[in-house]
Give the backbone structure.
Amino acid sequence: MSAAPLPPFNREAKAKLTENPNPTFEYGQKVEATEDGERWLEGEKAGWTVIDTSKEEARKIYTLMISGIVPRPIAFVSSLSEDGTANLAPFSWFNQVTHSPPLISVSISQPTSGPKDTAHNIKTTKQFTVNIISEPFIENANITSLDSPANVSEWEISGLTKEPSIHVKAPRVKESAFSMECELFQAVDITHPDTGKQTGTLILGLVKYIHLRNDVLNERGTVDFAKLKPIGRLGDISYARVGDAFRLPRPEWAVEGEKIKEFLKTTQ
């Protein structure tokens, strides 16, 4: 039985800022105080599924984690081997670690056949670039995840363009509006606590240069997410685009402290 056809990609959709979900929130307010919150808590009546990871197959754990830890940013990593062979691949176990020093992390799983080219290249050459994927070239980027033979160039089949970097030898993706040139800060090999086998490598990259396309910047000189059109990763083979967003300032004790003290008195 074939799946129902999907509607076409909505090219007219515009990401925008909206009011936050509960603008009347007060200290100590219960989730069920709003209609949305009440409906959300109703779902608990369906019960819980609890997974003991020590007794579950690795593949099942993988599918559960990638479907629940969402959305995930994607590191589109460009690297070079010792002999200068270029590699390009996307990884969704990626995030910022610190801003001072500017560090990012990319986690690369290791199949039973041995380290992936990206992990090997970064460990040996100590350099790579991370490029953010935007909507207009997601298909170009996705094709680089192909499990192709070593003699097949991901760059060629992707149709993407190599752009020389300033500090590292690995090229940037010219079509990416936000790219980072990185040096290897630390590589942490992950071994399974039961088998002792290596299952992946956590790469910490020191960001040396950031390249930003001017047309995705706002008046403050930072990136406008609506202009960048970044793509995120969901579970199975699903991707996500950025839709509506809302701004929610973090509370400061200097401003809210007295109000909080007064509220806490009412709970005693």
